[in-house]
């Protein structure tokens, strides 16, 4: 973390902020708290300007070419019970309808993610790992069979990890969605489906979707469960590669449950 000391000075207490890249840190000095990231995507500036992430305070380029960004560390993470709020639906709608965000991701070279390409990627990963479990094969068959029913012309900026830990509420009740490293251009059902399935009772889906701006019909419901099953398979593969037996079994159970839901839709 020498590069951080060069930027901030030794009076700041610096701790890792976690995340997949290991390039994110919290810095504290008296009552000041910052979130620092090395080599953030230029996408961050647009997200800040749109009020979707906490305001970008400064950007500094290091002698080695690294770019450091700083944002205020503010507010609290949402709890699972908070995800049913209208503010969550409205912010996700704003993100999905933002032409500025979509144009920026396109300029950064992001290609739209299609259901067909996702299934092929999953099949390749399963083959690479040498997995031959009946439940995984059945899930892949179901995803493939459903492909004609999940095509969607709408392609928007999707966050792709709408876990409650990535939503921050400031002391002024301003809601933010952070950690955009996995953002893609795709069917909005990727975000909507994961959020609904894991956080909101199915009886409340219709009302939540009205706040978001959609009507729950059979096509949307099919896409929701399709992407939820896809996420479960992806999570299983993640823990399979890490040889985490407990989480592997956990996700196999989820895959069984989701498949039963799809069969009864």
UniProtKB/TrEMBL annotation:
Membrane-spanning ranges: 224-241
Provide an example Pfam family for this protein.
Answer: APH
Specify the signal sequence span.
none
Q: The Aminoglycoside phosphotransferase domain covers which part of the protein? A: 17-212
UniProt keyword list:
Membrane, Transmembrane, Transmembrane helix
User: What is the protein named?
Assistant: Phosphotransferase family protein
